[in-house]
Amino acid sequence: MKDSEKVSAYIKKHSKWSSQLAVFRSIFLKTELLEEIKWGSPTYTLNGKLVAGMAAFKNHYALWFHQGVFLKDTQNKLVNAQEGTTKALRQWRFEDGDKIDKELVYDYIQEAISNCIAGKEIKPERKQDVTIPTFLNDALKRNTGFSEAFKKLTPGKQREYAGYIAEAKREATKQSRLEKIIPMVQEGKGLHDKYKNC
User: Which residue ranges does the record assign to the YdhG-like domain (predicted)?
Assistant: First the structure.
């Protein structure tokens, strides 16, 4: 299924907001942005960079701007959906009965495109340190093959496994989790790989 068909299916699936999402889509399609599906929602990109998107929720529908922190937001439409967590992303929420000002929406999208072209972006901070819990560290010392394979994993995958072991309260749970992850680590897999790129 092509991305355009996936977007059509997304709009149809969210019947409560389908006419409003169709309006957003018609505005996006007047721009130079490429229509894609990312994280299950319609997303619009420029030269591989995420610019904006739309999404439907139970009680509202929204536009989001990936680097929305740089938008002037002269009409005070944007909110930080996860205050304290999200640095760049901004959302413009609409509820039942809200009128969509097509020109204003288009202006916000065009400003987001201009900002993208200008290279304005906040890059996500990458966590560098991996804290290995004692139980996992002891297992790595006992099994050199496991240790070598663990060292070859990306820091992100190492953090996933370390957190998985650290979260277990009981010794028996830690042991069963350790037995589960050893073959995965030795195959170079991440704890959550099967859920990624679906």
Answer: 21-113
